[in-house]
Amino acid sequence: MQGGPSTSPEVIPGQETDLSEAFAKGWRVVVWNDPVNLMSYVVFVFMRVLGFDETKAKQHMLEVHEQGKSIVAVETREKAEFYCHRLQEFGLKSTLEATAA
Amino acid sequence: MKISKTKSGGRQLELAGPESALLRQVLEGLSEAYQTAPGELDPMVANLWYGRGGLKEAGIRGEEAIHWIEGLHEVRLGRQAALQRWMKSMPKAGHAGVWTIPHEDLEGLMASLNDHRLRRAGEFDLGERDLEVKAMEKAKGDKRVALVEIHFLAWLIELILQE
Questions:
Q1: Which among A62, A81, B76, B103 could disulfide-bond with B34, CB atoms 3.0 to 4.6 Å apart, if both were Cys?
Q2: B86 membership: H or E segment, kind and range
Q3: CB contact (8 A) between residue B158 and residue A40
């Protein structure tokens, strides 16, 4: 098939690394303690946003309460951003951290 | 206040006159605050609803940071329609009566009530000690009103979650 369009994807230098970073589960979602949010509400939000069962949600809530923070997910950049934003929509204090940091 | 679960999974609240007055006041205040641009809010409240903490460290800067904050504001603007609906379905201000919340509205209602708790805490820069019930008894003036609202809404959220 001479002269036809090439079907093999071109690899642009530098892009390969960006893609592997984007799909690597290299981002932590951290939830921080605050004095206002109720424990029961935090459990509800963890179940709703992160899909935790009640036991896991309570474990993470207690970790937040007793240790000041809890890593609630380790995900790809895109998914970690999504979780972090959703948690903030519910009024929880959450941040993103690179696992290598 | 009495609360019960409806057949469809919603909640029915039997409100006394002062409770309905307080709830209406909360929803009216929230409605106004949700429509306020993040940059025009009380800085302490803005920090709780639209905080930029951690964005820079995560590489979210410039336009991306603006979109992040705008996204949070859009969610709250989206709750605005529900707030209007709830105010219409509530007993008249200061009147006792029944208020029914459909199942699909419960999540938004709790998030809104929690936002009000955060807002009031931000306005008075309230910390853990301020939020103890004993502290409420000692507080005076506007700070006492804010604490009453915070504790009342905590009780309401707990009841909704327990049912």
A1: B76
A2: helix B62-89
A3: yes
Q: What is the pLDDT of residue A4?
A: 47
pLDDT (0 to 100) of residue B39:
95
Closest by Cβ to B157, choosing from A38, A85, A94:
A38
Q: Which residue of A has its CA nearest to B150?
A: A36
- Token pair recorded at residue B20: 């309905």
A98 CB-near residues (< 8 Å, 6+ apart)? A26, A27, A28, B58
**Inter-chain contact B57–A95, Cβ cutoff 8 Å?**
yes
- pLDDT of res. B103: 96
Tokens at B113, concatenated:
């009530």
CA atoms within 13 A on the CB side of A99: 14
Over 70: is that where the pLDDT of B5 sits?
yes
Closest CA to B156 of B124, B117, B127: B117
Instruction: Encode B60-98: b = buried (16+ Cβ within 10 Å), e = exposed.
Output: beeeeeeebbeebbebbeebeebbeebeeebbeeeeeee
- The secondary structure of A17-59 as a DSSP string is HHHHHHHS--EEEEEE--SSS-HHHHHHHHHHHH---HHHHHH
ipTM here: 0.94
Cα pseudo-dihedral B105, A79, A97, A12, rounded to 10: -150
Enumerate the H helices of B101-140 as residue ranges.
106-123, 133-138
Closest by Cα among A24, B42, B62 to B52: B62
